Amino acid sequence: MIYQNIVIGAGQAGLSAAFHLQRRGLLPWQDYVVLDANPGPGGAWQHRWRTLTLGKTHAVAPLPEFPFDNQDSTRPASEVVSEYYAAFEREKNLPVRHGAEVQAVSYDSGIFTAQLADGSSARSRSIINATGTWTNPNWPSYPGRFDGPQVHTNGFIGPEQFTGQRVLVVGAGASATQFIVQLRAAGVDTLWSTRSEPDWRTPTANWGLQVEREVNERTRAGLPPKSVVGTTGLMLNPVMRQAIASGALVSRGKIDFLGPHSVHFADGSTEPIDAILWGTGFSHAHSHLRPLNLHTESGGILIGEDSVSAVELPGMYFVGYGASASTLGATRAGRKAAVAASKFLASVPV
Known about the structure:
There is one protein chain. By secondary structure, this protein is an alpha/beta fold. It contains 7 helices and 18 strands. The strands form 5 sheets. A 5-stranded parallel β-sheet has the order 4-3-2-8-18, with helices on one face. It has a 4-stranded mixed β-sheet with strand order 1-7-6-5, with no helix packed on it. A 4-stranded parallel β-sheet has the order 9-17-10-11, covered by helices on one side. A hairpin with a 4-residue loop joins strand 15 and strand 16 (270-272). The protein is globular, with a radius of gyration of 21 Å. The protein starts with a strand and ends with a helix. The model has no long low-confidence stretch (mean pLDDT 90).
């Protein structure tokens, strides 16, 4: 069986793409399917720490024609968003296969083949890739050796992981700052390290458009997208202002090297620590696409003017990549990719 399209990933972008494929006439399970590595609905949201309540997240953009209103802001975002995605999959009759991890995608004579972890495969005439970043955390490397526990953002459960410990939090993004605020509130002693001065910003009226324009310029040049904070900066809200004033969010600067139970900063100072929490971001999870040879020498993928099409391979589309990595951008990109894929499919012989 050869599908017209395979969507890889059932997060915000993948579900939006699936909805719009169906809206444009593709039949679920016959013409297209969604392959998702997660055990159930929710995308990366299902893995977020329980202390991240909905009210503490950035705005969650609604899926198409499916309002996200009147939600309990005190509940864990992982629960609320997973339930919302599950309801969307069910009510829109989307053909989502959970637990279907795609390990490699190849292309030959107009047909894509997706090899799954269970040994099966699926073929299609086009692909919409929506794999996001959660499974590809950035783990920096520093001289020396640290013998204590180390946790990355995607392994953070809650402050109780670090009770009674002195924790070095590394990273200049929103996750790192939120971790520090949570840990301090739970009585955990923290230090903060960033490679450069934190870039605190107050959003302006056209802030979103400026960010999107900058990211699109990079992907159209085949450059890898910057980190989120490298593009957006850190949002300066009342909670963060208070944390800065208290001294909790004052960076000690760069790490020079690590000792078995200590951190040595570039300014020559040394501090004892018991654990490290790496809030150092993620890179796009594209290892399964390496057989397609789409990556440029700089590590990015050439994306067309429509912000979703792979320039080097007709029929290949990316959502949740570059400017569409935010939830709002992902929903819009899903529609763009579905429209582009439908036009492509109409132009090629069956």
